[in-house]
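Re: the request from the purification team.
They wanted to know what the chain is likely to look like in 3D before they choose a buffer screen. I agreed to run a prediction and write the result into the notebook, where they can find it.
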Amino acid sequence: MARRALGPARSLLAALLAPALVALLVSPARGRGGLDHGDWDVDRRLPPLPPRDDAPRVARFVTHVSDWGAVATISTLEAVRGRSFADVISFSDGPPGAGSGVPYMYLSPLQQLVSDLQENPQATLTLSLAQTVFCRKHGFDPQSPLCVHIMLSGTVTKVNEKEADYAKNSLFLRHPEMKTWPSSHNWFFAKLNITNIWVLDYFGGPKVVTPEEYFNVTLQ
């Protein structure tokens, strides 16, 4: 009789534990690298999207809440020389809530991206709110303009000594794992000098934003 009762008891226990186990498996880590330092994947921490008719502010918003993007360069690889070539790059425009609008990067000469930039420093950085909870919350597909993405085009250059500390603090705060990357890779701090900006946040094509309009925005 006891053995017969054991089966239903196990089923009940499994039913009670299942939701907790699923939550444990799918819950995001607290911040990048498991640290609580400004993870906008958590809905309660993501600031509200600015009005879509304010394209400069939307652009600054997307840049600031993004932690990574796709950088397109002109390839120096023999198989695709002269063609566009994209790679994922981590970046930061400043501490959470205090962004500068300038995308700072931590690069190594060992990266193909850097080889491309040494021959032609022009690049385009694409950023999307698909990396945050925003699009999932509203049911927007990453390709939908409603999900909001921007394209920042310009040249990538190594930062000078005056900016080095700000770039370092901005990057290491939001990407703490970078501190542990091997020094033998000769990492250096760089930035994208923005010359052109496009914002795609609604149907009808991208909106053009000038660098002046972009940098005149005050984050709130």
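For the purification team: Residues 28 and 97 are 21 Å apart (CA to CA).
Please add any questions underneath this entry.
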